[in-house]
Write a structure and sequence with these properties.
The complex is a heterodimer of chains A (69) and B (856). With 69 residues, chain A is mainly alpha-helical. Chain A contains three helices and no strands. The longest helix of chain A has 24 residues. With 856 residues, chain B is an all-alpha fold. In chain B, strands 1-2 form a two-stranded antiparallel sheet. Chain B has a two-stranded antiparallel sheet with strand order 3-4. The chains are: A mainly alpha (69), B mainly alpha (856).
């Protein structure tokens, strides 16, 4: 049913908005797109703390790259 | 990993977005993705807590730390609740945890989650000033970064006696707090002294101050184990009172709070860092997480609480019920607001069963107290005695009129316990069970109220009223410890309604006043016409020996006396209770000695007019009946003396002086009896009656007060009518004198009767002689009956009894003059009117004096 589908999308959107707001509150510096990816990964069963470590690692890597550049 | 294939695109996108440089650099991207996968498959963060509440708490705490105003925390709460409403995500807590761990990694300065923020000491960032000798001797790489404490501990480690690491002690202490022996510190269970035992360890030592600290801490653990043991023991055993049960419940709640604290403290334990000190995280831990000293501070309040609980527990072992409430209440008078608050709370809980019992007792008169905790105790022997008022079944007393009474000697002794016994002994007051906050006066009132209700319900069979009132009272809110003023108000209200109702029931439904006045009228001869009729009808048969009297004759005569006097207008319910019977007689007694009237009452009136009172009424009747008898005899005699002897048919002028003398003596006797009667009827009975009726019309107080009023009334009657003096052993002295006087009067009457008869024969003889002189034959002469011979023999006793009487009255008057009772003394004054006897005494004394004076 399309209406149900649209409901689902809307509520998913809302959930994402809430999470985004939270992430802003917590000062995580994640943009909306990355957050969406992360949430999707967590939903698929990835350990959240490990994922956080990944994000940090990547950030560090990026900083190193930028510093080198 | 099965999800690895689906993972890679996601990871790639992450890498792209976070490391923009990798977009153009394929090997870098691959390397990063591989690295990421490695991290993900590693064991980082395996130990996550699935509890979203806890997670939220820690996030909030974190937020509070960054912005102490709390707005962000509030906002977060708001967001969280909205998130929880959404159904799209299945792993909300994981998402939040992700965010949190990301956030906490960014807050580098205060990244740990301090539970005890206020306790965080300033970070020891100060570098040690100058290297000491100790420092130099050590082999540390960065001596300048070490604090002195660290240096000391390292020194100890090197010298072979390192201190036991604090986290180990801490863990053990937390065990101790729960009453469990730890690894290094044990609770010694030997010889009951509950000592702490530090396990000797050659590798480590525990310093003395630490030991002292642990001792302090373990006190709480010891108290906890006692309280816990008590609660468990009571849970298991049966027959535990309700107050105790509620105490246990309260203690259990407190213990749960304590468990919570322990759990929180445990979560604050520094993570066991096997790698040794020196790292940054260890330092951070030490700054913010639990130490023994912090534990002491945290546990401090609980130490006090545990002490209170343990005291209560100790008290509960010895006392029970109300006494236990009392014990707890004695701690509320404390200057320490903490203790006061704690005990108030405790009391509020603990007194709940007490108040529910009180409520039941106060408003429905039912004692529901399966564990004997209430301050009203029921006598188990009387518990089943709830006598049935037969009329209550039909609802009409008059229908019973035809039924016969069960005669007292057929009564089962157990049933003989009247309403008074039930009223007085069924419920007892237990002083030591009375909670102090109620107060004894109120306790008595409560007892009386409940008793009244119970009595109304079971003895008066008026349960409808009680039930209605109970319903009404339920709207008035419940009784609570915290509302003592309201409690007192409701007690007062309940007391007055119950007493009022009891009075109403007694006076209107059971016609107490009618019965009392019937007792006054019949037993105390208040109905003069009835008494006259009875004495006239019974008089002849009562002079016969007691064994010739039959009860049916007596009752028939009684019936006649009732019919022929005003008494017939009394309600039939009163008349049917009136009965005539004989007391137990011994040989030689005549009817006058054994006859008695009886008035029968049945429950619940017998609570007021109880058997003991009945005995007193019988005593009074006896005395008054004797008085009446004397009065009757005297009036008959007076008719002889005044009418017959005066010249109608006795024409013996030479005996006129003797008759005159007799009339004087008789007048004295009549005066005596009349005064006595007037005193009894007017001054004693009527006055006391007035007081009693006034009291009953006032309708104040409870059944006890009513009983007391009746008892004082009756006691006063007995004391004054029987002229009892309070002197021990001589109570009945005066009474015996009066009885003696009665006997003298009767003897005098007999003597006078003989003399009268003699006079009649003498008069006939003289008539005969006159007739003979005139020449008429009137029969054979009686030569023996000569006047000169018989006169002294007949006059002597009359004279003797007359003077005896006079003397006896004189002594009686003397005795009455010193009688402690004012009314009795006044009777003496009336008997001795115009100081007749005193004058006589003085005259005699003067005569004696003259006699002694003349020979000289």
């Amino acid at each position: 049913m399309p209406s149900q589908e649209s409901d689902r999308i809307a509520s998913a959107q809302q959930t994402l908005d809430i999470l985004y707001e939270m992430s802003q509150l917590l000062n995580t510096h994640l943009d909306k797109e990355t957050l969406t990816t992360c949430v999707r990964m967590i939903e698929s069963g990835i350990n959240p703390e490990a994922l956080a470590a990944v994000i940090q690692e990547l950030r560090r890597e990026n900083a190193a790259l930028v510093g080198r550049a | 990993m099965s999800s690895s294939t689906s993972l890679i695109p996601a990871l790639e996108s992450l890498v792209y977005s976070l490391v923009p440089a990798s977009r153009n650099d394929e090997p870098l991207k691959n390397e990063l993705v591989a690295h990421c996968q490695e991290i993900l498959t590693s064991r980082i963060g395996q130990s996550h807590e699935p509890d979203i509440g806890h997670l939220a708490d820690s996030v909030k705490r974190q937020l509070l730390q960054s912005t102490p105003s709390g707005t962000t925390a509030l906002k977060f709460t708001n967001l969280l609740s909205r998130l929880l409403d959404q159904h799209v995500l299945s792993k909300k807590h994981a998402s939040i945890q992700f965010l949190q761990s990301l956030a906490s990694s960014r807050l580098l300065s205060s990244s740990s989650v301090p539970f005890l923020p206020s306790l965080a000491p300033p970070p020891p960032t100060r570098p040690s000033p100058s290297p000491s000798s100790l420092e130099q001797s050590s082999t540390l790489l960065q001596p300048s970064r070490k604090s002195k404490a660290e240096q000391l501990s390292e020194y100890r480690e090197q010298s072979g006696r390192p201190h036991l690491p604090e986290y180990l002690l801490l863990r053990d202490t937390l065990y101790l707090l729960q009453g469990i022996s730890g690894k290094y510190i044990r609770l010694s269970s030997q010889n009951d002294s509950n000592q702490l035992e530090f396990v000797d360890n050659t590798k480590y030592i525990i310093s003395a101050p630490t030991k002292a600290l642990i001792h302090r801490l373990s006190e709480v653990g010891y108290l906890y184990s006692r309280v816990d043991a008590f609660v468990r023991e009571r849970e298991g055993s049966s027959g535990v009172g309700m107050i105790e049960q509620s105490l246990c419940h309260h203690l259990q709640t407190k213990l749960t709070e304590y468990y919570r604290l322990i759990a929180v403290l445990e979560s604050q334990m520094p993570s066991v860092n096997v790698s040794g000190g020196g790292s940054a995280t260890d330092l951070r831990d030490r700054e913010t997480s639990l130490t023994l000293r912090r534990l002491d501070v945290w546990i401090n309040e609980w130490r006090l609480r545990m002490r209170m609980m343990s005291v209560c527990v100790e008290g509960a072992r010895e006392s029970q019920g109300g006494a236990l409430v009392n014990l707890i209440h004695s701690y509320t008078d404390n200057g320490d607001p903490f203790i006061r608050k704690f005990t108030d709370q405790l009391l509020e809980e603990v007194s709940k069963p007490f108040f529910s019992t009180l409520h039941k007792w106060l408003f429905s008169g039912e004692l529901y107290d399966p564990f004997n905790e209430f301050f009203v105790a029921m006598d188990p022997g009387l518990a089943h005695v709830q006598y049935m008022h037969p009329s209550s079944l039909t609802g009409n007393i008059n229908q019973l009129a035809g039924d016969s009474f069960v005669s007292p000697d057929q009564d089962d002794p157990r049933d003989r316990r009247g309403g008074l016994t039930i009223w007085q002994a069924k419920y007892k007051f237990e002083q030591n069970m009375l909670p102090m906050f109620v107060g004894e006066a109120f306790g008595r009132k409560i007892l009386s109220t409940g008793k009244s209700l119970n009595f109304i319900r079971y003895s008066c069979h008026d349960s409808d009223w009680v039930v209605t009132r109970e319903k009404m009272s339920n709207t008035g809110g419940s009784l609570k410890y915290s509302d003592i003023a309201g409690l007192e108000r409701s007690i007062d209200a309940a007391y007055s309604t119950a007493s009022q109702r009891l009075f109403d029931v007694f006076i209107e439904k059971f016609r107490l006043l009618n019965h009392l006045s019937a007792l006054k009228n019949y037993m105390m001869l208040g109905h003069g016409d009835f008494a006259d009729q009875l004495i006239n009808a019974l008089g002849p048969s009562l002079s016969r020996p007691a064994n010739t009297l039959y009860r049916h004759n007596l009752t028939a005569t009684l019936e006649t006396a009732i019919r022929s006097s005003n008494a017939q207008n009394d309600p039939p319910d009163v008349l049917r209770r009136l009965d005539a019977r004989m007391l137990e007689y011994s040989h030689g007694e005549i009817g006058w000695d054994v006859f008695t009237l009886e008035y029968k009452v049945d429950p619940p009136i017998d609570t007021v007019i109880h058997p003991d009172a009945m005995v007193k009424y019988l005593k009074l009747f006896n005395h008054l009946w004797q008085m009446k008898r004397i009065e009757g005899a005297l009036s008959r005699g007076w008719m002889r003396v005044a009418g017959g002897a005066r010249s109608t048919f006795l024409r013996l002028p030479d005996l006129e002086p003797s008759w005159h003398k007799m009339r004087i003596i008789m007048a004295e006797m009549i005066h005596f009896v009349k005064q006595l009667q007037a005193y009894c009827q007017l001054e004693v009975i009527e006055c006391s009656w007035k007081v009693l009726v006034e009291f009953l019309n006032k309708r104040e107080g409870d059944l006890d007060a009513m009983n007391d009023a009746h008892r004082t009334y009756l006691d006063r009657l007995v004391k004054k009518i029987l002229l009892l003096s309070p002197k021990a052993g001589r109570e009945e002295n005066v009474m015996n004198q009066v009885k003696d006087l009665f006997v003298t009067i009767l003897q005098f009457q007999d003597a006078m009767e003989n003399f009268y008869n003699f006079c009649l024969t003498e008069s006939t003889r003289r008539d005969q002689r006159l007739d003979f002189d005139r020449g008429l034959y009137t029969g054979p002469q009686d030569p023996n009956s000569s006047l000169e011979e018989n006169l002294p023999r007949l006059l002597q006793p009359v004279d003797d009894y007359g003077s005896q009487f006079s003397e006896k009255v004189q002594t009686l008057v003397a005795a009455l003059q010193t009688h402690p009772d004012l009314d009795c003394r006044f009777l003496g004054v009336r008997l001795n009117f115009s100081e007749y006897y005193r004058g006589k005494q003085q005259k005699e004394k003067e005569k004696e004096r003259a006699e002694t004076a003349t020979p000289k």
